[in-house]
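Quick sanity check, Glycosyl hydrolase family 43:
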Amino acid sequence: MNFNKIKIFLYAALLLFACTRVRAQQPDPPGQVDNPNEAVNQAYLFAHMIHEDYGRLYYTVSLDGLHWHALNNMKRVFEDYKGHPDICKGHDGRYYIVGNRSDASPDINIWVSDDLISWELYNTFTPDLKSTPDYSYALQRIGAPKLYFDEDSKQYVLSWHTPHKEGGETYWASQRTLYVLSKDLKTFSDHPTRLFDWDMGTIDVFIRKIGESYYAILKDETYPTLYWTTGKTIRIAKAPSLLGPYSEPGPSISPNFREAPMLIPSPDGKIWYMYYEQYPGVSYGLSIADNMNGPWFQASGYTFYSDWDKYSLPAKVRHGCMITISRTEYDKLVEHFGIEEED
């Protein structure tokens, strides 16, 4: 009898050891550094909204691009802002953020900051949607403005999505991405222009130059079916120059019903982290690749089980943008706003 008890005990111990080993063998995401001082990218800022306060500005920060902590006790960091936050560093080394009061508002508002702490209104731009070539039938709607400063041409691309049909999924499938150009965000090109030659619903589009190519990261806004399996997923189009022509989008980076992609380089600068929201405010996914052409894999996270999560974000966060910042900027943000305590 005692011998049987010993055998059961040993079997249980071996099973526990095996489970522990399997769990321990789950690899950490690539791109991290052992010594933070050796990081190419020292810190990150996530400017976002929250589920209960849609369209207002909140901050969350990270030192590794994987584990994120809320600032300011998850309260607004700038009361005047409204929109879907998107920040870029501009021609003068300052930060610019764009937004709009609602999709029905005709105006795009631009604020500027030296330190990401204090913002002041820089300009208000009202695009003439009806002047868009081959898109004069556009509805008066401006969705989720995005801003990108192209170092090569020293100009900004201010983009957004605008539909041309009313009603449910027809409305969303009719979204097209438009843009204007500017050297200083004070004056803009004569009229909006469609970014893509192909005819497909797109929203949440942003542009990045990586290597010698330009990439447009987008949400495919066609509804998913057996005949359009990429619907409501994150995809990537590629171009040899800033304004294209862009290739047709590649395969899905995310599962269906994901939106608001965000792209950051890893601390060692060798890996790409692509975040996206499972809407409405359900969770965040993270896909990882060592180059923009893929392949991409999905990391485990946002389960709130520390032994399973390979990345984590505070509950309630909704979409916005992620950017790299310096450790000095990170420290100043933490000092000014305060940071949530570690669990």
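Posting the structure with no commentary besides this: The longest helix spans residues 2-24.
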